Please model this.
Amino acid sequence: MRYINKTDLFIVVRNSGMIMIGIGVLCLIPIIVDLLYLEFNFLGFIVPSLISIILGYICIKAFDKYSSRKMRLKHGMIISALAWLWASIIGGLVMLMVSDLSMVNGVFESMSALTGSGVTMYQNVEILPHSILFFRSLEQWVGGLGIIVMIVAILTRPGTSSSKLYQSEAREEKLKPSIKTTLKHTIRIYLIYTTFGIILYLLAGMPLFDSVCNTFTTISTGGMSIKNANIGYYQSDVIYFISIILMILGATSFLVHYKVIKTRGKSLFHDLQFKVMITVIAIVTLMLYFASNIIPMDLLFTVVSAATTTGSSIKGAEIMAGWPSFVLICIMGLMLVGGSSGSTVGAIKLSRVIIFFKGIYKHIREILSPEGRVVPIKISNTKVSEKAVGDSGNYITLYLICILITWSLFCLYGHDPFNSLFDTISIQGNVGLTLGEIDFGLEAPLKLISIFNMWTGRLEIYPALITLRAIFEIFKR
Model:
């Protein structure tokens, strides 16, 4: 049975044109920084931008008659999956032209920034042009909310297309009945917290450029720093605490943020995911403090960074690699779970894990109960369907399979099994903490599979699988 026909392809191409134009415009923004610092690398941004804008315009005009066709969720998912790949390719081209990074490394760097994975292919980021540093930070900031979310909010009209594109990036929460209005409110909240972060960093003594870039990377839970030593470069507990606050804000659902003002803060403490995240951070930090001799600030910062999938660090990979295995295993567990659904985080997400364990507990209770009794599952007084439990289990299984395959390939290439597992969990969850296995010298096939992991991790796997199935059907004909 054919699931993708020519009409489907034309709908995807036509609507992808709008996304390509948006990506091209994104590449022009760093030119402001380039001119401010008199670096004159603007051609490296203009050429990729024009390529994306012109091709996007051609896609829209050539298939304009399909603009009235109803967009389905499968179209939205394919568009979303291709958009992240296209944005990474265009971003990689920028890095190739401006900083002489190879195309494979450039695409890796761009995918890492956009997905908030935070692992870099640059050996020394402090010698890079300010425009590239800003571009990487901007990619993380945009990727934190989602490329599609940003572009749909700005360029599209309200309607079914907006709704399907919104859902395609694994988002279902609504602040308002209209998706368009929801997106505007979400971006407004994001901008408020971004401004808040910049001001706090400035008050802590951080330079303006650093404040902007670090806020972009932290509030988006991206973690790709403009310093080789990451946040540890600043050697300031005040800056560390500001970063912790921003990481937790970024890992909290936008729906909760929206309700905070209306409920005078009560929504924050009534939200199950937020309560679980804070509780886990507190318990794990205390447990690791008594189980190791690591400096408390180093532990707290790393635990928060892992739990929020930010990947910011105040200690380098070589120091972390020397930490006790028990500590690193706990950090791996945090990187697997991640923060709240409806936020900027990666990984499996707390809501799925909570539903999954609630389903296990329900099954145990039903076995112990009188025959025929059905035990309902409720989260925050809301009933959870059997389908939601099954979907959570299916996703967690798929997620672990992706990790297993990549980890096996790292071991095949002779990498340390423990460190490889840590780094594989990190890239699949778009975290960025690393023990040094993924760097500039990584074998090309492993770089490509890592790009795939970051891509599927950000899209939550299904859009990527649907896109691959669609490509298979095209070539099967």
